[in-house]
Amino acid sequence: MPAPSEKPPAKLALEDGAVFAGRSIGAPGECDGEVCFNTSMTGYQEILTDPSYRGQIVTMTYPQIGNYGVCPDDMESGGPKLSGFVVREESRVRSNFRSNTSLGDYLREHGVVAIEGIDTRALVRHIRSKGAMRGVLSTTDLDDASLVAKAKASPGLVGRDLVQEVSPTDSQVWSEPLSRWTRLDGSGAEPFEGDGPHVVALDFGMKWNIPRCLVGQGCRVTVVPGKTPADEILAHKPDGVFLSNGPGDPEPVAYATDTIRSLVGQKPIFGICLGHQLLSLALGAKTYKMKFGHRGANQPVQDLSTGKVEITSQNHGFAVDADSLPDSLEVTHLSLNDQTVEGVNCRTAPAFSVQYHPEASAGPHDSHYLFDRFLAMMRQQAPA
Ligand SMILES: NC(=O)CC[C@H](N)C(=O)O
């Protein structure tokens, strides 16, 4: 790894004129996107490859990133999906028998523009007080005025369908189980096609740990593109339909809300994150853009049905508006940080969803029980 003095200069500029100068730790080039921050201490690899970060420049609040390298087992998709990456300091050493490459080499290999050496605390305080902002990260243009102009011209997230950039074009049967490093019982990880309830997963940019968890529950899992219409989904004869996470604003993904609306009541449905927002929209609720969102592995959520608090992994910048819920939807989970909606249940049909990530990766496993709830719902609805 090059010494800090040998790393080329890089700059991050925000649309409001703030500019942060640092050093490049990734590929040469320039990217734009919404600048957000994640408070996880670990999980940078899962964050880099989570397709929900499409269109975003992610800042890690934890000050040193890269310490445990990059491991082939910890991918959440086929490669980085975000726009750019910001850290306080890239670790000079990587120490992990599971890793096969360093963070910097991985970023360069995949063309990710990334910066270190900026005051990430100042950047995060800026975004927290002023709200999420568009930005530009560059190693090729270091002129402040030019960068700020480019940040202002960046399209942002609102009103764009980013799902189509990360959703697959073909269906596949999923057989990869949880890696043995994340299995709660520590057992091996041979490919496995479950013989339990058949789940058709609508992939809007799905994190791979979700189908791994479903297979871990014994489910047979068929992953289909996010644009798959209802009749094609039903032709797979599913016992349940899963709605995945995914990037950007849920409102423009109208083809998915139409599909979901016609599936509600026909099959048990479980949605995570974007899937939760799309289910809520399909049933008549509204979504809105949050000031700076929830991203981290330490977000407290209360399950209102049990009163229990779970610490959750989250990544979202939009949310379901509690005041817009139709009578058919009830709030089941609340954020204890800001009282926003974290889960809903349909009163009239077997369908529920959460705004956070029970598949963890990275993050705590407190919410894994939601996969059990989905399994129980499918078993209950199955014809005798
Ligand atoms: N992880 C997700 O599915 C994110 C959902 C949506 N893109 C948001 O930012 O709110």
From TrEMBL:
Region described as CPSase: spans on this chain: 1-197
Catalyzed chemical reaction(s): hydrogencarbonate + L-glutamine + 2 ATP + H2O = carbamoyl phosphate + L-glutamate + 2 ADP + phosphate + 2 H(+); L-glutamine + H2O = L-glutamate + NH4(+)
Residues of the Carbamoyl-phosphate synthase small subunit N-terminal domain: 8-138
Domain of life: Bacteria
Spans through the membrane: none
Keywords: Amino-acid biosynthesis, Arginine biosynthesis, ATP-binding, Glutamine amidotransferase, Ligase, Nucleotide-binding, Pyrimidine biosynthesis
Pfam families in UniProt: CPSase_sm_chain (PF00988), GATase (PF00117)
Residues that, per the record, bind L-glutamine: 52, 246, 248, 274, 277, 315, 317-318
Gene Ontology MF: a single term: ATP binding
Keyword Ribosomal protein part of the UniProt annotation: no
CDD domains in alphabetical order: GATase1_CPSase
EC assignment: 6.3.5.5
A GO biological process held by the record: L-arginine biosynthetic process
Pathway annotation: Pyrimidine metabolism; UMP biosynthesis via de novo pathway; (S)-dihydroorotate from bicarbonate: step 1/3; Amino-acid biosynthesis; L-arginine biosynthesis; carbamoyl phosphate from bicarbonate: step 1/1
UniProt record similarity statement: Belongs to the CarA family.
Job of this protein: Small subunit of the glutamine-dependent carbamoyl phosphate synthetase (CPSase). CPSase catalyzes the formation of carbamoyl phosphate from the ammonia moiety of glutamine, carbonate, and phosphate donated by ATP, constituting the first step of 2 biosynthetic pathways, one leading to arginine and/or urea and the other to pyrimidine nucleotides. The small subunit (glutamine amidotransferase) binds and cleaves glutamine to supply the large subunit with the substrate ammonia.
Name of the protein this chain belongs to: Carbamoyl phosphate synthase small chain
Origin species: Pseudobythopirellula maris
Primary gene name: carA
